[in-house]
Design brief:
Length: 198
C-alpha cells in the first residue's frame, strides 16, 4: 500500500524515516552471507507482486507477500522491502522518494511483527498449527499495514480519516488472499526447503 507523495505531514515523514533507518540498520547487521540470496529473492518477489496496484484514494492496494517475507527474513525484511520500494519509486513512480521511509516502515514493520508473533510457532509447530498460524499471519500483516497507512493519514490531517477507513476496508479481501498464499508458501517451504525458515 503505497502512500502517494505530497500527502503526509513533515512530522509523519520524519518518524517514518527514523523507524525505517533503525530497521534497516538492525536488518543489515542480522543478514549474514548465507542469507543474502534468500533476502534478494524475496525482495524480488515483493517487487513483482506489488507492481499490480489498484488505486484507493491517496493509497493503493496490491498483493505484497508481507507475512512470508517476515517469517523467512525476520529483521532482514527492512532492507529487502526498502530496496524493492526504492526501485519501484525510481522506475515506476509508485509512492515517492520522500514518502519512501513511511511506506517501508508500514510494510516492513508489519512483516516483522508477523515474524515476532508467529515465527517460532510456524517453524516448530505441527502441520495443522503451521497452516492456521500462517493464514492468520498473512491476514494480520495486510490489516496491520493498512491500519498503519490509515494512521499515518489520520495523523497528517483529520480530513483523511474517512479515506483511512476506506483503505482498511478495501484491504480485507486482499488480506484473505494473502492468508491463503502465506499458508501455501510456508507449507511448501517447510516441506521442501526447511532451512529457509531456520
Amino acid at each position: 500500500m503505497h502512500i502517494s507523495e505530497g500527502i503526509l505531514s513533515g512530522s509523519v515523514l520524519i518518524a517514518g524515516w527514523a523507524g525505517t533507518t533503525a530497521g534497516i540498520a538492525v536488518g543489515l547487521r542480522k543478514i549474514d552471507s548465507s542469507r543474502i540470496v534468500r533476502t534478494a529473492l524475496l525482495s524480488s518477489a515483493f517487487f513483482l507482486a506489488s507492481l499490480v496496484n489498484v488505486r484507493i484514494g491517496p493509497s493503493s492496494t496490491h498483493l505484497s507477500l508481507l507475512a512470508p517475507m517476515g517469517l523467512v527474513l525476520g529483521w532482514g525484511v527492512f532492507p529487502a522491502v526498502f530496496t524493492a520500494l526504492l526501485l519501484q519509486s525510481v522506475l515506476f513512480h509508485f509512492g515517492g522518494l520522500l514518502v519512501l521511509g513511511v511506506n517501508t516502515f508500514i510494510m516492513a514493520g508489519s512483516a516483522l511483527s508477523m515474524y515476532l508473533l508467529f515465527g517460532k510457532v510456524v517453524r516448530e509447530g505441527s502441520k495443522i498449527l503451521t497452516v492456521c498460524m500462517s493464514f492468520l499471519a498473512g491476514v494480520l500483516a495486510v490489516i496491520l499495514a493498512a491500519g498503519l497507512a490509515g494512521l499515518c493519514l489520520g495523523l497528517t490531517d483529520n480530513n483523511f480519516v474517512n479515506a483511512a477507513k476506506v483503505i482498511v476496508i478495501a484491504h480485507v479481501p486482499v488480506a484473505l488472499i494473502e492468508g491463503l498464499v502465506t499458508s501455501f508458501v510456508i507449507m511448501w517451504l517447510k516441506k521442501s526447503e526447511p532451512e529457509f525458515l531456520s
